[in-house]
Amino acid sequence: MKTAVSPRKAPRQARSQATVTAILDAAARVLVERGYAAANTNLVAERAGVSVGSLYQYFPNKDALITALHDRHSRQMDEVMDRAFALSQDLPFDEALQLIIEGVVEAHRVEAGLHRVLETQLAGLDMLSSHEETEARIAEQMGCLLARYPDQVRVPNLRLAVYMLMHALHALVHAVVATRPSGVSLKTATQEIVRMTRLYLSSPPTGG
User: Fold this and answer.
1) Which residues cross the membrane (predicted)?
2) Residue 56 lies in a domain
3) How many CA atoms lie within 13 A of 48 on its CB side?
């Protein structure tokens, strides 16, 4: 039988919303400290200062709770990226590119410890549809961004360029946020990502 991963009910009153927020905040702390396998609803309820019965009013099981946490985290990251794409609309190519990459870095700094756990430990949990939808939306925004600068973007296949950027930026940003070398600031590392990306996009193809 498939485990339910949807919330049991949505909070409507301010007090209920505060309870759900406390539960999700506690779940994030427990997940970062203990990992997915060791996290459980009893511990989350204790950290949130509510009874486990109160937790179950909103979340039928651990996976429903973690899925709600994942969705909240995705929305927070989406807000950062949506703001970056909106601000880039009328900027010159170099400024727009820098703003978008800084946005990607900022988005990955939103509860970075939680993000690492969600990325590394929960790949098999039934929450991937929302993740895929988010990626598809960002890819579409990235494609629209590149299409605005035909004189600067020399990669002939924009669909391929978006694919390369999505995967390259995902790996690089994760690295600079979490494991950059000692003595290298986040600002410096981000500027290097901007430089690498600009060189890729502005270099004409060589050969077939």
Assistant:
1) none
2) yes
3) 26
Burial bucket for residue 104 (CB in 10 Å: 0-12, 13-18, 19+) = buried
* CA 87, 128, 63, 29 torsion-angle sign: negative
- What is the extent of the structural domain holding 87? 14-202
pTM to 2 decimals? 0.83
Evaluate whether 2 touches 126 at the Cβ level (below 8 Å). yes
% pLDDT > 70, the chain? 88
Query: How many domains, in total, are found in the chain?
Result: 1
Cα–Cα distance for residue pair 138/158, rounded to 1 Å: 14
Q: Is residue 111 part of a domain?
A: yes
CATH code of 181's domain: 1.10.357.10
Residue 6 covered by a domain: no
- Predicted pLDDT of residue 1: 35
Q: CA–CA distance from 39 to each of 23, 46, 62 (Å)? A: 13, 12, 8
**pLDDT interval class at 123 (50, 70, 90):** low
Q: By three-state DSSP, how is residue 75 classified?
A: helix
- 5, part of any domain: no
User: Are 115 and 108 contacting, i.e. CB atoms less than 8 angstroms apart?
Assistant: yes
Write the DSSP symbol of residue 157.
-
Query: For 81-107, what is each residue's pLDDT tens digit?
Result: 999 999 999 999 999 999 999 999 999
**H-only helix segments in the chain:** 14-34, 41-48, 52-58, 62-87, 93-108, 112-121, 128-147, 158-178, 186-202
